[in-house]
Write a structure and sequence with these properties.
Blueprint: H1 12-19, H2 25-34, H3 38-48, E1 67-71, E2 88-92, H4 95-98, H5 109-112, E3 133-135, E4 141-143, H6 149-162, H7 167-189, H8 194-202, H9 213-220, H10 222-231
Antiparallel strand pairs: 1-2, 3-4
Helix pairs in contact: 8-10, 9-10
Length: 246
């Protein structure tokens, strides 16, 4: 999970709706369903997220998926935050995408639904959210083993709630990491720079990041930290834990 820095307020129409927010679950559902400016809000969110799904870090446009606007604190239980831009992120999987998926392969906001424990959930708006997870070479994600027991419980709660170890995501992450591994082997064999390869994989192009930024950052370890220091310090935030890929 990559930290998301909010860059704006979502635009005039969202702010106007947020000036008089709904006060009940029914109002939240009705007003959100009738809100006609979701495309504009999605554009703002997509820009500040560099094209990545807020929870899974998949690039929806790379794999033929659409997106939906996710309420981190569910509008059913927090109606006052229905139009609060600082409660909104963009996630993979539209309602249309769900029709072609088994329940096991639904992840992110559509897996979370209205379930949410604010004392347990790791939000992508937390500066240190990437510290809670490590990515394994077989594509799985698990709590960082350097965490306290309480922190590990939070990380596992978040993984389970968002189904971040869905078969689909495991497969996509494994394919990505296998490709990186092959590229690194080729660069080493041909005496090419791993620093330059890390630049290609970690620095935004046209305001878009490659998928699985945090897993890639972990994969390159110290080289990634140097690349981010030199070229994209705004993406670095708090230093990533020194956990190595298992």
């Amino acid at each position: 999970m990559r930290n998301i820095t909010k860059l704006g307020d979502g635009g005039y129409h969202l702010n106007r709706s947020n000036a008089s927010p709904p006060i009940s679950r029914q109002q939240a559902s009705s007003r959100w369903n009738s809100f006609k400016h979701k495309t504009n809000v999605s554009g703002f969110l997509n820009t500040e997220q560099y094209g990545l799904c807020a929870y899974s870090e998949i690039r929806p446009d790379f794999v033929g998926l659409e997106t939906h606007i996710e309420h981190i604190q569910p509008k059913s239980n927090y109606p006052l935050r229905t139009f609060d831009y600082h409660n909104l992120v963009l996630c993979a999987l539209s309602d249309q995408d769900l029709k072609d998926r088994s329940r096991d392969d639904i992840f992110g906001g559509h897996a979370k639904l209205g379930n949410y424990d604010e004392n347990q959930f790791i939000s992508p708006l937390q500066n240190d959210c990437h510290q809670y997870f490590i990515y394994l070479s077989d594509g799985r994600i698990e709590p960082n083993n350097k965490l306290t027991l309480q922190e590990r419980d939070k990380a596992q709660y978040t993984i389970d709630l968002l189904n971040l170890d869905s078969p689909y995501l495991i497969n996509q992450r494994k394919k990505w990491l296998d490709e990186l591994d092959n590229l690194i082997d080729e660069h080493i064999q041909n005496d090419h720079s791993l620093y330059h390869l890390a630049c290609v994989e970690l620095i935004p192009t046209n305001q878009k990041l490659n998928p699985f930024f945090t897993a890639t950052r972990q994969f390159f370890q110290n080289i990634a930290e140097q690349v981010l220091n030199d070229h994209a310090p705004e993406l670095k935030k708090i230093k990533l834990s020194n956990s190595s890929m298992k």
